[in-house]
Fold:
Amino acid sequence: MLHLLVDVQGVPARKATLDARIVHDLGVDGDDAAELFDELHKRFGTDFGPVECQ
Structure:
């Protein structure tokens, strides 16, 4: 997933760490977060349906 943050979202590689929080530390939210989750779904078949309802 770290490479998706760097390649898809343009997050600097030095900031894309395993303990970085997507919104708070990396600033990925709104449409950018939706794009990231869509890419995760395409590559790994994840289901974020339950997350969308919250």
